[in-house]
Design goal:
The chain is of the alpha/beta class. The chain is 34% helix and 24% strand. The strands form 6 sheets. The chain has a 6-stranded parallel β-sheet with strand order 2-1-3-4-5-6, with helices on both faces. The protein has a 5-stranded mixed beta barrel with strand order 17-18-19-21-20. Bound molecules: S-adenosylmethionine and iron/sulfur cluster (SF4). Iron/sulfur cluster is lined by residues 159, 161-163, 166, 168-169, 203-204, 242.
Length: 445
């Protein structure tokens, strides 16, 4: 690698899950602390961090096409490129062998060391760091400064569940929970920096465990209760939950804490018990439905969301039909659905009965049609309700603003508003992906 000067501008491009978005924000703060400025809109950055996702093959391959594009666009002055995130963790130094333009490879548990790695790259030394220290990273990150009205806070990382299709336990490591006191302090700083809503993040966020100030054990509901005491924080959300880690306390919290939004993302993956078992999911279709029923009893208007995989090895048409039945039984407000993607090193990749691509395509289409129908029905049923909308950004048209309802629907409004406002809005019309609202009065804080 050749020597070069310290880059003056950077861009962080995050792919995949919200935890990557959080990591991307923290890396941007580290780079700004090092005196590197964020590149302006449309400007080529001198340092590009590709914060990658390894969950499906398509997501993982994106990094290589992006590197090719950056090198071509840079001509004689290509940017310094760092690969971060789960592809970095999974592929390590192989990335530099396959893409020599990459100067740094840094895993999701090691990105606090990015500034030192940049110094090494400036000296012409390629640097790879995919260590997985349990908790060093968060302590080494700089303080939060300016954040959007809706901010992320990673409370839990890693996964011990080992679903047979999934790379997360290998790329993100074992489950760890950040200490409650650190999280409260970070939540406070986020609020001071402008957050009015905080979404608590974790691969299995409801596996979070910690202690209250008296040393008594608490779960995610205890953490939510503590954070809800911050007076200027108006809304709390959490994602992604695992059915096996749902507790009575978490369900009760939805009925008791006004700041906890009526929304639950609880992935199920399949409606077939045989497939669920082969996936090493610890729930059955029936136990999952029972869990959702209990959330609905605690908070009748709760919006339900989930994740689905179609075409898991051996999935028959009859088993897929059970997934469709489950979708009808739940009536999701929103959901994510994916074609199964064989990931190297996972048990499912070696299973018999890999499902042909055209069968997966057909199943995904049918599933998404059903989910889309339910999403539209949920949005239509919201019309006529008056609710608080948190304004997150300007809309495309002049005078238009875009925000989120308590049920995480995108809502457009027109009129006097500003980013960060919490406004009382009557939901007036519904489409499949958003609603139009009419401004009533500024919501009481
Ligand atoms: N921990 C969460 C849970 O199990 O509910 C999900 C986290 S995972 C990052 C997000 C989603 O990606 C999963 O719920 C699953 O639907 C999907 N996913 C994971 N591995 C996959 C694979 N190999 N092929 C297709 N989809 C996959
Ligand atoms: Fe992956 Fe399963 Fe862990 Fe979710 S619970 S991150 S799907 S292994």
């Amino acid at each position: 690698m050749r020597q070069r000067e310290l880059p003056r501008t950077f861009r962080v491009k995050s792919f995949g899950c919200q935890m990557n978005v959080y990591d991307g924000e923290r890396m941007a703060e580290l780079l700004a602390d090092k005196g590197i400025a964020p590149a302006l809109e449309g400007e080529d950055a001198e340092l590009v961090v590709l914060n990658t996702c390894h969950i499906r093959e398509k997501a993982a391959e994106k990094v290589y096409s992006d590197i090719g594009r950056l090198v071509k666009a840079g001509g004689d002055h290509p940017p310094m490129i760092a690969v971060a995130g789960c592809v970095a963790q999974a592929e390590g130094e192989e990335i530099m062998a396959r893409a020599p333009a990459v100067g740094m490879v840094v895993g999701p548990q090691a990105y606090h060391r990015l500034p030192e790695m940049i110094d090494r790259a400036v000296r012409g030394e390629g640097a790879t760091d995919t260590d997985m220290p349990a908790d060093a990273k968060f302590a080494a990150l700089p303080a939060r400064r300016r954040v959007a009205p809706s901010a992320f806070l990673t409370v839990q990382e890693g996964c011990d569940k080992f679903c047979t299709y999934c790379v997360v336990p290998y790329t993100r490591g074992a489950e760890i929970s950040r200490p409650a006191a650190d999280l409260l302090a970070e939540a406070e700083r986020l609020v001071t920096a402008g957050a009015r809503e905080i979404t608590l993040l974790g691969q299995n966020v409801n596996a979070w465990s910690g202690e209250d100030p008296k040393g008594r054990p608490i779960g995610l509901d205890g953490l939510i209760r503590a954070i809800a005491k911050l007076p200027d924080l108006k809304r709390i959300r959490y994602t992604t939950s695992h059915p096996a880690d749902v507790t009575d306390g978490l369900i009760a919290a939805h009925g008791e804490i006004a700041k906890l939004m009526p929304y639950l993302h609880l992935p199920v993956q399949s409606g077939s018990d045989r497939v669920l078992k082969a996936m090493n999911r610890s729930h059955s279709a029936e136990s999952y439905l029972r869990t959702l029923e209990r959330f609905r009893e605690a908070r009748p208007d709760i919006a339900l969301s989930g994740d689905f995989i179609v075409g898991f090895p051996g999935e028959s048409e009859a088993e897929f039909a059970q997934t469709l039945q489950l979708v009808e039984a739940v009536g999701y407000a929103h959901a994510f659905s994916f074609k199964y993607s064989a990931r190297p090193g996972t048990p499912a990749a070696a299973m018999d009965g890999q499902v042909p691509a055209e069968v997966m395509d057909d199943r995904l289409q049918r599933l998404q049609a059903a989910l889309g129908r339910h999403q539209l029905a949920f949005n239509r049923a919201s019309v006529g309700k008056t609710c608080a909308v948190l304004i997150e950004r300007k809309g495309k048209k002049p005078g238009q603003w875009l925000g989120k309802s308590p049920w995480l629907q995108s809502v457009h409004i027109e009129g006097e508003a500003a980013i960060g406002d919490l406004l009382e809005v009557e939901l007036a019309a519904a489409g499949p992906n958003s609603l139009a609202g009419e401004l009533r009065v500024r919501a009481a804080a």
